[in-house]
Amino acid sequence: MSAYIVGVLVPLVFTFILRNSKKDKRRGLPVDVGGEPGYAIRNRRFTDPVTSAWEGISTLAELFEQACRQHPNKRLLGTRKLISRETEVSVDGRSLEKLHLGEYEWLTYRKTFEAVCSFASGLAQLGHKSGERVAIYADTREEWFIALQGCFRRNFSVVTIYSSLGEEALCYSLNEAKATTVICGSKELKKLVDISGQLDTVERVICMDDEQPSNLSLVDRSLTWNITSMAEVEKLGRENPIEPDLPLGTDVAVIMYTSGSTGLPKGVMMTHANVLATVSAVMTIVPDLGSKEVYLAYLPLAHILELAAENVIAAVGSAIGYGSPLTLTDTSNKIMKGTKGDATALSPTVMTAVPAILDRVRDGVRKKVEVKGGLSKNLFNLAYSRRLLAINGSWFGGWGLEKLLWDFLVFRKIRAILGGRIRFILSGGAPLSGDTQRFINICLGAPISQGYGLTETCAGGTFSEFDDTSVGRVGAPLPCSFIKLIDWPEGGYLTADSPMPRGEIVIGGPNVTLGYFNNEAKTREVYKVDERGMRWFYTGDIGQFHADGCLEIIDRKKDIVKLQHGEYVSLGKVEAALSVSSYVDNIMIHADPFHSYCVALVVVSHPALEEWASNTGTPYTDFTELCEREDAVKEVHSSLVKAAKSARLDKFEIPGKIKLLHDPWTPEFGLVTAALKLKRDVIRRAFSEELSRLYS
């Protein structure tokens, strides 16, 4: 009996000690820095910010060439062959394109490097000169990566443009950057043709696809564009090779045009050293990152999160398989029935994600569980609750053999949705709700690290360590960054606050970019250089430091609106709290200073509301009519109130009235950015009548 007691108690005591040691672990340490007074934290393992993780490497071009020399025969870039496409008509009369995709076909590091060198030579032979800028305007794909690295080998600055940008923003970006060469897909070329007369500096257009759009003959006759294919440029370079003109670390690698949540996009100037600092920092904090990884690439490469991630994966000799958000899983919108989704075909081990994607995965799993019902539903709920207790430290029996049991019986099938081999997920671009973080962590069995950074800091800022099981925080500073909080008295946030210092988040380090292209006034407003030579970026976000040195984002200076009676409403905070409602696909809170309450536009989850209608016997002819029903509005509003109370929101923060919307907000419609952030001003204008009626 005594041996049995020891056998049970020793593992429990060990687990208790281990979990409490993680809980008390210092993940960030105070540091003395220059500049404006504040409360600053550094990474616990690095006294000074990391600039390069590789000796003798100071540019992305050198880093890529080194990787190709070290791993010539390993797989690098993978793309699925399009077998066929069909058009289906949905029950509501909409035409939906469905794709039949084959297995991944791969380029090795050697073949990729050859393509990069050929493209670099071909681009120069085509007439692109030193000092001129190349714009890449396309969806994420292997040609994007090859074009980027090719430009780096000739020290051409790359202007990155989201493929979802509207005509006005597209014209503005290309004209402001004075791009002379544009590299794009056939879909984007069609858009360029439509606005050709408004583009001032474009001379060459390189299409990644061999087929060209039908409207090509409509190019403005006054222009003398040289339009060619990427294959032809590579062929030209192979036949006429040119020695590389490699950049220095201080040279501008990328001018990245943000998708612009407000107004026209701004071009952020990133040097090779800036991006390399973030890439080097990530190398030090992802556990056991090496050449065995398989990475699923589907986020926009025009976003710094994806661009940095792919450079990290290439640097360590791993494989990058390309996909898209619309073909990600077996049930994605564009996947033909019976065809594998990208994740199933690739079986990735690591991936990046934005919260909106993870929310969809969560909602999809929950829907399947509800549809199955009965024993399957009860078993899932039991398994989930036991794992949740274990992660929260309330039940030690949820580890070990019991964990293996639940993984085999329940979660193994869920993990197959993303290929079954995911071991690490990085979430960035926006706040991830604690509910989704826990759900994905349990169901996929992999740590989700929340990262915090901005385009202006090359995505570098903070990063949750893989063994940090807390939710709602974004981790300690990356090794390339110092994070400082400074007082914002107007908003009531001070570094002297108790129990945690609070204030505006300011990021310093070698990853902080040069500023905004052709916008010195805005650059001076948010970038500062201190007396020690450290460059700082003022984010406008409000954060607080926990005792272990981890950061939590709690507010945004621009998102705070003062109501009629003096109460302050933080729009982003309220939206994050209400997004946990199963009825919410997207939501925007609107606060008017001339009223005492806020209102909400709610993009409704079709499955959730239709399930409610079915369960309650509510009649409707189509989803639009269902969204207009008073009882449906009442049901969704009740769910929002419940979520608000659970998040301990004040009464004035709970929307007094709501409007249900049936159409999703996508980058194509211009209501959200490519990173799926709300474009508040655009949404306000688009739904001005609805907002007015909510206040009437």
Automatic annotation (TrEMBL):
Record pathway: Lipid metabolism; fatty acid metabolism
Matching InterPro entries: AMP-binding_CS, AMP-dep_synth/lig_dom, ANL_N_sf
MF-aspect GO terms: ATP binding; long-chain fatty acid-CoA ligase activity
Domain of life: Eukaryota
An example Gene Ontology CC term for this record: endoplasmic reticulum
Record domain AMP-dependent synthetase/ligase: where: 97-517
Entry keywords, A to Z: ATP-binding, Ligase, Nucleotide-binding
Cofactor(s) it depends on: Mg(2+)
Reaction(s) the record says it catalyses: a long-chain fatty acid + ATP + CoA = a long-chain fatty acyl-CoA + AMP + diphosphate
PANTHER family according to UniProt: ACYL-COA SYNTHETASE LONG-CHAIN, ISOFORM J, LONG-CHAIN-FATTY-ACID--COA LIGASE
Similarity comment: family membership: Belongs to the ATP-dependent AMP-binding enzyme family.
Protein name as catalogued: AMP-dependent synthetase/ligase domain-containing protein
